[in-house]
Amino acid sequence: MSIYTSLRHNIHLAKQNILHRINPKRCNYFLAEKTEKLSAEPLKRVNLQVPAEADTYTVVAVGKKDDKLYKKKITTFYSEGNIIKRTIEDSDGNNVIREYEDSGLGLKKSSFFERKITHKVQDKVTSLFKTNLIKLIKGYRSEKDGKIKIQLLTNQIDDNSINSMVTEYPFSGINNKFVKRKMLGLKMDFIDGIPVIRETFETTNVKFPSDDKYLPFRFIIDDGIKLKSLTKHFINEKNLDKLNIKISISDKVEDNTAGYFSENSGAIVYNKNVHTNLVKLSSHEVEHAHQYRQIGRICKGNSKYCLDSRKLYGPIDGLNESMEAHKYAVASEKYPNIDKSEDLSKNPEYKNNYLEVKAREAENRAFEEYQSMGKDLNSQFFFWLE
Ligand SMILES: [Zn+2]
Question: Which one, of 231, 284, 262, 232, lies nearest residue 335 by Cα?
């Protein structure tokens, strides 16, 4: 089946679902979820794929009877009643994004697709699964001439290292053997959870982006590994490493929260089910960890984290820095209790709390830097290495 038939296939599945009520044995798929049109606003904060102009969206999810973990989720975004984007996410890692544009002569559509293929390579000697090979295939199909662009990112993960390679293939259909593939590869080791480049490889048509400190992170496919290592990076950058902050990814975090820093447990916890901007998310939570260290250093706060902070980092001597820490302390006392079902973007007490205002400033600074450092690399490849 061509990937482009996915949508038709899904409609087909939905039809099959109706059939399945008549003859349950005929279909392995079932309709797991179907929503009415919902407001897109609350989703914008936690989901990057929501277009800014979307006002409503619907979700249809399909499951498989013989595979409880399988789920295909189709999210359709609307603006003033017109479909503008549809994302098809598959728990197998096959995703399609279609963007619709009203050209005045009917809807113009372009398709981006993404497939994640994971397999474990068995080590014959120890018969253990030693190496993980993950491939991320991104593609684009031009509506005009049907030509396809493919970009491949592979990660070969061993105990404490990743070999990664990005390969961009010329547009299929261009019958020109002088158009070469573009390749850039990194061999990295994890040192204290942070990827460090050991060796590099690039074809002659690629210029190595040497001034990008985030380069190793861009080559990591696994969101969990990437999020944890980015967090470690920001912890080091903020000189917070003495505090031994625990980092975890959990499926027990409330739906309206992508992550949080807990001063009581000295931990950063991320929501496993929320897919958002990893750089913004991690730098935001590390900023909170920094804020509570500063609170501890002016002898406010009585959590172990705050006490440790004072012990390990001593009192603050600069006047400005100490005034800033007092502002954090005041804000922490006013920090609102958050209801697990509320839309945080509509809670001014939360949004305007000084700790949140400053954490948002930090995340924006970090992301701006991440993007501007990535220009050298990303101007050379068709798809961004995010
Ligand atoms: Zn926050």
Answer: 262
Coil, helix or strand at residue 24: helix
Cα(251) to ligand 1 centroid in Å equals 19
Instruction: Report how far ligand 1's centroid is from the alpha carbon of 374 (Å).
Output: 25
Closest CA to 92 of 67, 115, 113: 115
What backbone torsions phi and psi does residue 50 show, to the nearest 5 degrees?
-80, 120
Tell me the CA–centroid distance for residue 289 and ligand 1, in Å: 10
Please state the length of the chain: 386
pTM of this structure: 0.77
- Mind listing the pLDDT tens digit for each residue in 67-110? 888 888 899 999 998 888 888 888 776 778 877 776 566 666 67
For residue 362, how far is its CA from the centre of ligand 1 (angstroms)? 11
Ligand 1 centroid–CA 335 distance in Å is 10
Q: Is the dihedral of CA 88, 94, 99, 100 positive or negative?
A: negative
Among 360, 297, 285, which residue's Cα sits nearest to residue 324?
Answer: 297
Distance 356 CA to ligand 1 centre (A): 5
- DSSP state for residue 306 in the 8-state scheme: H
Place of tokens 């003859």: 23
For ligand 1, the distance from its centroid to the CA atom of residue 290, given in whole angstroms, is 12
Task: Give distance in angstroms: CA of 205 to centre of ligand 1.
Answer: 42
C-alpha 345 to ligand 1 mean position (Å): 12
Does the CA dihedral 278-281-284-290 come out positive or negative? negative
Across 34-61, b (16+ Cβ under 10 Å) vs e yields eeeeeebebbeebbebbeeebebbbbbb
The 10s digit of each residue's pLDDT in 302-355 is: 899 999 999 999 999 999 999 999 999 999 999 888 777 777 777 888 889 999
CA of 260 to the centre of ligand 1 (A): 7
